[in-house]
Amino acid sequence: MEKIIFRKLILDISLRALITTFTIGLIVWIIQAVNHLDFVINDGHNFKIYFYYNLFSFPKIIHRIIPFVFAISIFFELIKYEKNNELLIFWTNGVTKKKFVLSLLNFAVIVMFLQIIMGSFISPNSQLKARTFLKDSNMDFLPNLIKQGKFIDIVSGLTIFISEKTEVNSFRNIYIQEGDSFSLEKKNNQIIFAKKGYLVDGNEKLFRLLNGKIVSINNDNRLISFEFEKIDYDLSNFSSKTIKIAKIQELPSYKILQCSLSLMNDKPYIEKMFICEKSRLKNLNQEIYKRLIKPMYIPLLTLVCCFLLTFSKVQNNFTIKTIKIFLYLLMILILSETLMRYVGETKVFLIIFMSLPILLFFTIFNFLKSKIKYDKNF
After folding, report:
1. What's the half-sphere exposure (Cβ side, CA atoms, 13 Å) at 249?
2. pLDDT digit string, tens, across residues 335-362
3. Is it the case that residue 142 has pLDDT exceeding 60?
4. What single-letter DSSP state applies at residue 201?
5. Which of the four pLDDT bands, split at 50, 70 and 90, describes residue 184?
6. In this structure, are residues 77 and 16 in contact, taking their beta carbons and an 8 Å threshold?
7. ∠ at Cα 225 (223, 231), nearest 5°?
């Protein structure tokens, strides 16, 4: 009987947590997807890249909201069980409050390890995959961004100006500049003027220019120019200005740990994926905190929720006490988020921040025992 009623409790908490997680996650994902429309509007990527990038960003959102959702799910399920007299089923079947608390904590520990796996492997890999889509993409949506009377500089090392758009994918008075600025010291840039031009049908990355002139620099750093009747300018050789280098939150956990430990021990660490340097140590340690230490607050949040067992609905101040416990939950959540900003560049900070949730857990656990030690169900 005990296994059945505990299984129902865990199932109810899990179901509420799943529904809440995907509801909140979907709302945040939609808002984020709207903000990422710049990939299409300003950066020239097509909607396929935009969709994949947002899709693989979803695990990051789920990982971020799980501690809050899990704590809230336990909080409201315990209140529901108390109001529906379902907690009495546990006590009448010989389940002590100590066993009840320990069973919830065992469940919380499982969720904690799942959160560590999500933050250390699934979320970084999915974000890195999303970044790979941007890295491997080209400017499929560029033709739709070319407008008359407007400088187009979304492409790295390329600026385009169109004086007039006559028909679909057909233009007049075209100015193209390669390089961020035209200088005699730079040999890899040139300026192209053309009276007419159009995007070749079936290949919208090939710009056919008519009746124009090319100005460039020769090996002697002298300006040279020549006129042309027709040339084909390949736009696919250029890439977007969208950041394509992997960010810290997209890196594998073992690489972050190796880099951080090497820097704290003043040892060199060379990595192809990113630059391991002292200036990034704090950010690296903050990422370690987010992936490995912050999930340790999940059992602590669960323990705070168990204070709902110290009073019943028949008491006059039941609502006030539940609000207090809810505020305590919020304080711990805020604490776990705030401490991440103060992660330093030494091992001492990491050890202190790792020890804090453990010390708080045992302190609160002993306090909970003292609150209900005279309860016959404990």
Report:
1. 15
2. 999 998 888 778 888 888 999 999 999 9
3. no
4. T
5. very low
6. yes
7. 140
pLDDT average, residue stretch 259-278 = 84
pLDDT band at 117 (very low <50, low <70, confident <90, very high): very high
Residues paired with 240 in a beta bridge: 155
DSSP secondary structure, 238-284, as one string: --BSS--SPPGGGS-HHHHHHHHHHHHTT-----SSS---GGGHHHH
CA distances from 329 to 156, 294, 368 (A): 47, 14, 15
Contact 357, 300 (CB under 8 A): yes
> What backbone phi and psi angles, to 5 degrees, belong to 221?
60, 35
Burial letters 296-318, b for 16+ CB under 10 A, else e: bbbbbbbbbbbbbbebeeeeeeb
Burial of 253 per CB tally in 10 Å (0-12, 13-18, 19+): middle
Q: What is the pLDDT of residue 141?
A: 47
Which residue's structure tokens are 């010989």?
94
Could you give the 3-state DSSP secondary structure of residue 170?
strand
Residue 13: CB partners within 8 Å, gap ≥ 6? Answer: 73, 74, 77, 107
Asked if 216 and 224 touch (Cβ cutoff 8 Å), the reply is yes
Task: With beta carbons less than 8 A apart as the criterion, state whether 164 and 148 touch.
Answer: yes
- Give yes or no for a contact between 163 and 150, defined as CB atoms under 8 angstroms apart: no
State the Cα–Cα distance between residues 173 and 75, nearest whole angstrom: 67
Position with higher pLDDT, 92 vs 155: 92
Closest to 223 measured CA to CA, from 269, 245, 190, 174: 190
- Note the pLDDT tens digit of each residue in 232-245: 887 666 555 455 45
Amino acid at 241: K
Length in residues, the chain = 378
CB atoms within 10 A of CB 222: 9
Residue 313: helix, strand or coil by DSSP?
coil
Question: Is the pTM of the predicted complex or chain greater than 0.90?
Answer: no
